[in-house]
Design brief:
single chain, alpha+beta
Length: about 160
């Protein structure tokens, strides 16, 4: 699963790079500069010509094509949707499951805390605090509900 996520993240980086080049028109000299470079034989372009219409008036800039607009806006949106379904949605599902497990705790359940302490629930003080007893000495520890990682006994 980790390799799959790595491959997908690399694919997203490539998609971002493609969308950025589509937005900026690519890297390197433009087509008119390429003609000037090949004619002069050097890469230094000294004079920039503005395109004109047959009447001699300056030409209007070309409107971007529909395909370039779809690529410019569609790929980043597709990237965000993919990131949501790969990263955010599974994390939310996991958090909901953990919250439900913590809310269903009752006295007598065996739990493991985030720190690795194993204990048995003996008292639920309020919504946020729980008292557990650990070890053979029956030491009591007061912990926060959010510090519970998993239950070892199934509550029915």
């Amino acid at each position: 699963m980790k390799n799959f996520k790595k491959i997908l993240s690399i694919m997203f980086v490539v998609i971002i790079a493609l969308s950025l080049t589509a937005c900026s028109g690519g890297y390197g000299p433009s087509a008119s500069n390429k003609d000037a470079i090949s004619a002069s034989g050097s890469s230094a372009v000294t004079e920039q010509q503005t395109p004109t219409t047959p009447e001699g008036a300056p030409a209007q800039p070309k409107k971007p094509s529909t395909m370039s607009m779809v690529i410019s806006y569609g790929l980043p949106i597709l990237l965000l949707v993919g990131m949501y379904f790969l990263l955010i949605a599974p994390q939310r599902k996991k958090e909901k499951k953990a919250k439900a497990m913590r809310d269903e705790l009752k006295i007598g359940d065996e739990i493991v805390t985030i720190g690795g302490i194993i204990g048995k629930v003996v008292m639920i003080k309020d919504q946020d605090q729980i008292v557990i007893e650990t070890g053979a000495d029956k030491d009591k520890i007061r912990i926060m509900r959010w510090a519970i990682q998993q239950t070892l006994t199934i509550s029915e």
